[in-house]
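Lecture 7 notes: from sequence to structure.
We start with the chain below.
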Amino acid sequence: MGIGAFLIYFAILLILPIWAQSKVKRTYKKYMKVANSSGMSGADVARRILQENGIYDVRVVETSGFLSDHYDPRKKVVRLSSHNYHEHSKAAAAIAAHEVGHAIQDAQDYAFLRFRHSLVPMASLGSNMSYLLIFVGAILGSFNLLGIGIALMAFAVLFQLVTLPVEFNASNRAMTQLVSTGVITNSEHRETKKVLNAAAWTYVAAAVVALMELIRFLLLFLHMNE
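Predicted structure tokens for the same chain:
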């Protein structure tokens, strides 16, 4: 890889995640100040959508942190950050509906969600060990260590790639539920979509960066075998 290509590679590696995080924060902060027409808090939205879908074994609780919202399938809990739990903003409604979208996926045994769950042990191992094995393998010139490290990294990358359809599907479910339950009107559709799309870009950026890193180390492995 030439110096120019090397610099472009690392520029993308650094800039893309920063841009994605900046986009989601700007969009979220804009719409966290705009009330939704239903006057419902994020917690209210989450509970209504769960009830409308006949899901009664999932709790909705408050959690600390900024944009720390998530669905925990092991404990059957939708966790909403404080603002999204209490406030009646368009951002809160969108984020709450998105997380409940994951709960609906879980209840309906959504295939990509199940596949992603099955990848967690190896993806976690890959995230924690791959760089160490690749580094040691490259220093020692050990093809075995380098190959094992790349294989483990591949599981982490696969997890990131499988995350994309899971997240986009949850957002699509969120939009459908927000409209069908009357939480938002048609006039709010565009703004709510902006919040969900901005959040999706963080997953796209993470997947692109992970894939680029895997390709880089695969090229290193092939070069060492020449």
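Points to note: The longest helix spans residues 143-180. The chain has seven helices and three strands.
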